[in-house]
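Data card: per-record layout.
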Amino acid sequence: MTLRTYILKRVIISIFILWLVASLNFIIFAASKGDPVRYLLKPEMTKEQRELMAEAYGLNDPLLVKYVKSLRNQFSFGIIPPYFGWSSQTKTWVADGLWWRLVTTVFLLGSALIGRILLGIPTGIYAASRRGSKMDVAVVTSALFTHGVPAFFIQLLAVFILTFLLTKYGIYIFPLTAPLPSKLATSLTGLNLYIAVAWHMTLPIITLVLVGFGAWALYIRNMLIDALTQDYVLTARAKGLSERTILYKHAFKSILPPVATMITLAIPGVVTGAIITETIFKIEGIGLWYIRALDETIADYAVAQAVLFIYAALVILCNLIADLLYGVLDPRIRVGMRR
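The structure for this 339-residue chain is written out next.
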């Protein structure tokens, strides 16, 4: 199998899986009991007006028509009509309320993911290079603690400590909520506004990094320790190569494919939204919007479908990228393709 055939095959499979996900997305919400019209009703509305509204939302359409409309909504990707459909919450296209919330969530979780990687990978390498030492034990212990403690506990603890310092001693370190105060938001423009937003998001980002870096450190440490016991490492030591060269140019290079897979598969989580984090810090992100959309009294299923579809599309895309990266980073796969 040539590389071109391999890529084409993976792309076709990915498109088929995306269609399957979109179909299941429709079936799940078609079977739900929520009524979006009920959320829009007003006491003075007549039965005829309710029927007209149901007709406008396509609730009386045949099942096949609903399915086609659902596929059209999802595969619009929010950039062409019908822009993921119509939201009963915002009374606008779903895409209108989606993109700014998505930017907020991506900034929050994307920054946290980058922080976890930049902190976790070097920490794991450091621990693996000093296996059995006090520093290794300290790294493993702290990593297990941060990995095992729920994120909301760390976040509530951080809010409690900063609130105590502010009210008791007047010490101000970070804003306790992510959104900007309305007066500040209206008085800032350009770069100053972006800096202020980043400053207000600092505390939730730090807490997410502290909670998540331990898993990265443990994965890297364990994979490196396993790599350092392989025969090619013993051969490199027998040749008189330095431990630093062995660690980075041999052992770490050999674990790059699984590390690349970990990073690519972590990317879809950047858009799903940290629901608890967004609730604690009052962040109007994609996760909070998705949970509201599932409420049966609102039943904004166009929003829920859009969020799930975006997540599924990113998972499929990142799996495809991971497969292609394996072909680039692992020579054994390239040899297998030629056979």
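Known properties of this structure: The mean pLDDT is 84. The longest helix spans residues 94-129.

See the next section for split statistics.
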